[in-house]
Amino acid sequence: MRNKLLDYHALAEKIKQWGRELGFQQVGITDLDLSEHEATLQKWLDNHYHGDMHFMERHGMLRARPAELQPGSVRAICVRMDYLPKGAKFAQVLRQPQLGYVSRYALGRDYHKMMRKRLKALGDRIREEVSTADFRPFVDSAPLLEKPLAVKAGLGWTGKHSLVLDSQDGSWFFLGELLINLPLPVDQPQPEQCGSCTACMTICPTQAIVEPYVIDARRCISYLTIEHAGEIPLEFRQAMGNRIYGCDDCQLICPWNRYATPTPEADFLPRHELHEPDLLYLWSWSEDEFLRLTEGSPIRRIGYEKWQRNLAVAMGNAPASTELISALAQQRPNTTPLVQVHIDWALDQLEQRLAATETSAKPARLTQRLIRVIEKGLPRDA
């Protein structure tokens, strides 16, 4: 059948149904005009809010021009997949500083490949219906302003924390897109419903939301623990608390997330090692153990060095104990200079707190002796 004879409205409804059958909680359709976002994107880049994510600068305005990513495309089929795990235990972990907090999206399997595979399956199903359909799936895999596309497609509105919010399910979901060459009818955006609420801006531990809808990534704990490759600035280390991979505070405080529905996806359920992990246990992992225990997890992508860097900061913020001091001191000679900087900071924090509680300089002397003994390879009782 020739495309001009197609009932695109009926096809759009079929596409949404096929998407739900593939496990997407919501499917919306929009055109590709994001020109209104170009000035905002350029200002964000000019302010260097992207930090050392240089790929943001390299691709420039391409992010706001989806048609250039897939020539011939005229629509984006935007999908949402919920990831909030049952029994997420947010507060319990954050209130126990001897545990490591992992952002809830990273507790299970990495979503990128799974969602992309399902988006491709959706595209293939469309092509079965319309042989001339040409498409390309995206899941955080190309320079694309996916959140503005999702908003145009009716999946939600932009919250002041810059995440997409839905009135029924909050913000605990992943986004994906299928750029396609079919002139499907478009959906209408949801009305903005944040009102005067600024809870996300107030709660941010590092005040990274510098104004409504604008994030300075250089201050964001998610950026610092995942994207940032160098030393974590001193001014943010205490604010990180026990957050070792990402941060959920702006979502946790959001009133709309009271309505979030736990995900039905088994792949997003928490791994035992990461759900309520003890910092000393995570610190004991060798690089081989890190690679094995994070296989299939988004955490694996940051690498062992950044993992240890993040853990060292969290341990420096934990209740002071000789066990923590000993573990950090023992590992110090076997790590990289980057990790050693953060170990030294953590040891200093722990020493100060122990000294304050015991009113004695003994903990500091003990730490220095441990480091000297370990670096010389002498027996512990030497």
TrEMBL record:
Pfam families associated with the record: Fer4_16, QueG_DUF1730
Residues bound to [4Fe-4S] cluster 2: 204, 220, 247, 250
Location of the protein in the cell: Cytoplasm
EC number: 1.17.99.6
Catalytic reaction equation(s): epoxyqueuosine(34) in tRNA + AH2 = queuosine(34) in tRNA + A + H2O
Active site: 140 (proton donor)
Pathway assigned in UniProt: tRNA modification; tRNA-queuosine biosynthesis
Annotated GO MF terms: 4 iron, 4 sulfur cluster binding; cobalamin binding; epoxyqueuosine reductase activity; metal ion binding
Residue ranges annotated for the 4Fe-4S ferredoxin-type domain, each copy included: 185-214
Annotated binding of [4Fe-4S] cluster 1, by residue: 194, 197, 200, 254
Keyword terms of this UniProt record: 4Fe-4S, Cobalamin, Cobalt, Cytoplasm, Iron, Iron-sulfur, Metal-binding, Oxidoreductase, Queuosine biosynthesis, tRNA processing
Domain of life: Bacteria
HAMAP family: QueG
Physiological role: Catalyzes the conversion of epoxyqueuosine (oQ) to queuosine (Q), which is a hypermodified base found in the wobble positions of tRNA(Asp), tRNA(Asn), tRNA(His) and tRNA(Tyr).
Family: Belongs to the QueG family.
Protein name according to UniProt: Epoxyqueuosine reductase
